[in-house]
Amino acid sequence: MDTEHLETIVHTLRLVGTDNQPTEVKSSVGKSIRETLSAFANANGGLIILGLDESNGFLPVEGFDAAKAQDALETRCAQTTPPVRPLIDTVPFENSLVVVAEVSEMTSEDKPCYVTDQGKYGGSYIRVGDGDIRLTQYEVDRLVEERTQPKWDEQSVTDAQPEDLHSGTVNAYLSVQRKRRPKTFNDGIETAMKRLRILKDGHPTLASLLVMGEYPQEFYPRLTVTFANFPGTTKGSVTEGIRLLDSKTFTGTIPELVDEGIEVVRKNMRTAALIGEKYRSDLPDYPPVAVREALVNALMHRDYSPLAQGSQVQINMFVDRLEITSPGGLYGGVTVRNLGKPGVSSTRNQRLSAFLEDVKFHDDDGAAGVVAENRGTGIAVIQRSLADALMPPPEYINRLDSFTIIFHRRRVAEKERYASAFDQVLTALKSQVSASTAELVKSTKLSRTAVQKAVNELIAEGAVERTEPLRSPRQRYRIKT
Questions:
Q1: For 73, how many CA atoms within 13 A lie in the half-sphere containing its CB?
Q2: Signal peptide location in the record (predicted)?
Q3: Of the residues 88, 178, 257, 263, which has the maximum number of CB atoms within 10 A of its CB?
Q4: Positive or negative CA dihedral for 449, 452, 458, 459?
C-alpha cells in the first residue's frame, strides 16, 4: 500500500462520512479488531486502517505510535483460529504514520475463521455494511460443510417405507441403470437399490423420495416451492388494495415442482407479440428456458441439511423482475464471479443430481427428457437464452444462507405494445360469439384506442369481421369463419 492509494481510499471515506464494507478504520488496536479480522477472512477480505479518527473526519490521531500499533495488531491476528496473516504496511499520511493491514479471504478449507476464545459458534463473523455480524449456527455449519462432500441427500428417511416411492418411476430408473451399469444388479434388485442409494437401511433416501416419491411433503412439509406475484417493486411497496396478485404453494416431487413453477410464471407474466410482415413472434417477459434452468438449479443445488429442511424455494415476481431464491449459498469452488464459465461445477447433492440426470419428464409437446443434464451447463443456458432474447444477463445474490438469481423484465418496444394488444383482442374474440369495442376494452383492460387499432389490423388481415355496416352505432366484431 502506498501513500497515493491510501489518499484515494480516505478521500472516499471522507465523502461518505463513514467506513464501509471493505474498509475498517480504527484509531487504535482494541479487542474488537479480532471480530473484524474474522469477518474479513470469512468473506471477500478487506482493509484495516489504524491511526485515523473516524469521528474527526478521518484525520490522523495525534500521538499515534505506528510501531506499537503494528505489534498489537500482530498479537490480535494470532488470537483467531486459524490465525489471520495480513499484509501489514506503515504508510506516511498527512504528516503522520498509519498502519494498513490487507486481509485476504481464507480458503474454504480454513473457514470459518473465528475469535479463538469465543469459540467457533460464538466467535465467527462476517462483514455486513460497515459492521461485523456474528454468524448463526446454520451459517457456521455451511462453512464447515465446504470442507467435505455433504451427504444429506443420501440420509435415510426413517419414517418412510419403500411403498412411499412411485413404483413406475423407480422401475423406469432401474431400467436405465440396468443398461448402463449391469454389474450393479449382479446381487439382485434389493442390493442394487441400496447401491444406487434409492434405499438405505430399508428406507427411501431423501434424494429418492424427492425425485421418485408418491408425496415427499408427507415427511418434509416445507420442502416446497412458493410463488408470489407482487404489484410493486418490493414486497411492501403496496400498502393499500391488492397486495398480492397471485400466491401459490406447490408440492410434489422435484419434476412436478419444476413443471408447476414454470407454468405459474408463464400464467403470470406478459407475453407480447411482435408482428412481422408474415409471421407473429411471441416475446415473453422472461424466457421459459431460463426460468426452467434456474428453478431446476434451485431445487437440485439447494441446502437439504436438517436446519434448512424447513425452508422452501421461493419464486417472487415483481413488476420489474423475477427472483428465484433457494436455501444455502453457492457450494464448493463455485462463486458469483465464475458462474457459467467452462469447467466450473460443484455439486452439493451428488445423489440427487444423479437421479435428476436420469429421471424422465415430459415437456409441453409430450417429448421426454431428463430433469437436469448435470453437466454444469444450467447457468450457461440461462445466460445464452437471455442474450438471444436481447435481455440483460441475470444478477446473483450469494449469501451463506441463500442464493438468489434475478431476471430483469424484458423492456417492451412500442410496436410490441401494440402487438400485445393485437394478441389480447384476438384472444378475447375467440372466447365469445361477438363483442363491441366497449366490451373488448372491459375484458382486455386496454385503452379504447389500443383496442380499435388492434381490431382494424385484425380486420385488415382477414381474421376478424364486422357484424354491422361500417358506421353502425351497434357495431360488433367476431372471428371470421
A1: 28
A2: none
A3: 257
A4: negative
Q: What is the pLDDT of residues 153-170, one digit of tens each?
A: 999 999 999 999 999 999
**Whether 246 contacts 276, CB under 8 Å:** no
Q: DSSP characters for 209-232?
A: HHHHBS-GGGT-TT--EEEEE-SS
In Å, what is the CA distance from 391 to each residue of 73, 103, 298, 339?
Answer: 48, 37, 21, 18
The grid coordinates of residue 18 equal 463513514
Which overall architecture, per CATH, does domain 414-479 show?
Orthogonal Bundle (1.10)
Among 256-260, 270-274, 359-363, 429-433, the range with the most confident prediction by mean pLDDT is: 256-260
CATH 3.30.950.30 segments of the chain: 3-146
Work out whether strand 131-134 and strand 46-50 pair parallel, antiparallel, or are unpaired. Answer: unpaired
- With a CB cutoff of 8 Å and minimum separation 6, the contacts of 94 are 59, 60
Rounded CA-CA distance 467/455 in Å is 13
CATH number of 3-146: 3.30.950.30
Residues of the chain with CATH 3.30.565.60: 225-408
The segment(s) of the chain belonging to CATH 1.10.10.10 are 414-479
Judge whether 167 and 56 are in contact, CB under 8 Å.
Answer: no
pLDDT (tens digit, 9 = 90+) per residue, 350-365?
999 999 999 876 554 4
Among the listed residues 47, 41, 35, the one whose alpha carbon sits nearest the alpha carbon of residue 91: 47
DSSP codes of every residue in 72-90: HHHHHHTTEESPP--EEEE
Could you give phi then psi for residue 397, rounded to 5 degrees?
-125, 110
Answer CATH for 225-408 from 3.30.565.60, 2.40.100.10, 3.40.190.150, 3.40.50.300: 3.30.565.60
> Is the CB of residue 350 less than 8 Å from the CB of residue 152?
no
pLDDT of residue 264 exceeding 90: yes
- On whether the pTM is more than 0.85, the answer is no
Phi, psi of 141 (to 5 degrees): -60, -35
3-state secondary structure (DSSP) of residue 64 = coil
| Amino acid, single-letter form, for residue 317 | M
| Per-residue cell: 309 | 429442511
